[in-house]
Amino acid sequence: AAAGARAAVPPPPPPPPGPRVVRTDEGAVDGLTRCERCGSTEISLNVATGRLRCSYCRYEWQGPSALATSDLNSPIGELSGVVIGSGSADIIPSTDEVLTFKCSACGAEVVIDTNESTQARCHWCRNTLSMNQQVPNGAVPDMVLPFRVPKDDAVARIAEFVKKRTFFAHPVFKREFNPENVMGVYLPYMVVDVNARASLAGQGEHQTRSYTVKSGDSRRRVYDADVYDVVRDFTVHIDDLTVESSRARLDKDASRNTNNIINSILPFDVENAVRYDSNYLSGFHSERRDSNVADLTPVATVQAQDVARHAANQTLEFYDRGVRWDHERVDVVGQRWVSAYLPVWLYSYQQRKSNGRSFLHYVAVNARTGETMGSVPVNQPKLLAVAGVVQVVGTILFALIMLTGG
Hints:
alpha+beta
């Protein structure tokens, strides 16, 4: 080459393709959502039927399926790369959270604070205005799963749950407990479909015989086993994996709260979710999503690995002495993310401790299945006293058994 000539520099590799976004609010309209029969804007969910109902003429109708779009309902085995619903797009911190709408009935301007709700009532004509189009602040998801368990049923379930635990419950909690304070809350989740390839390798043992060996006055049991190299390589299709998308709910520090209670009432029948319509939220509270897909991908990946490991375990019956995996790998081929509001009846209680700190306890009811789980403040002195009595009784019984040669 000529003196001073510069060697050719290869171009940088192309950036990885971003997620493919599927619009889920196509045709959604902000403002007045009217009853198809009488034109009223007084619309809310009828929990008994799971349908929207007009408060004036009592007409009911069902919103469209959330997964009607073919791109969000295609077979999991065909997934490649990352596909997300438009309501799952990354949150833009600078996005306004307080939005102003013009009432099409009277022309007044109405403010909706998306931190609190996606509906507001016009202060002049009293019509209800709804926000259904998505804005990049996490307030409007792709879909919503309506409440199905009535409040009275949830109150009874919570009361029964606490009743079974009153013996060790803190006396202050027992005095203040009132299940009527339960609230209906839509909690933010991501619903994830995963197409992955799993590869596991290790060693497994199969028992061939067992026998007793005598050594002096002692005997011991000996087991013989064959050792095999075990390899499993298979495709994993995970349908409707639910991942919490609230940073507060993702915090599992047991010294501060009992957020793990929420996960214990899974699963939800998300296949029955409908396209987001703020009328489904009327009369309920909601919590806005504040986590992005990138934040939640490690959580979903860990759960996908657990699913793959469980699937492999179902093929290992021959190795009755167990299998030790030396190599585990799960490669995600494709994934699909859809944001959702899922319904929970929630009773919360803030326990104030003597050191000045507070601790939140929850009793939660899955508002689709009725599954109930929670935590109750414990009377520590009573618990320790009972544990002490049990230990003393156990020690005495053990001593008697030894003395009698039993």
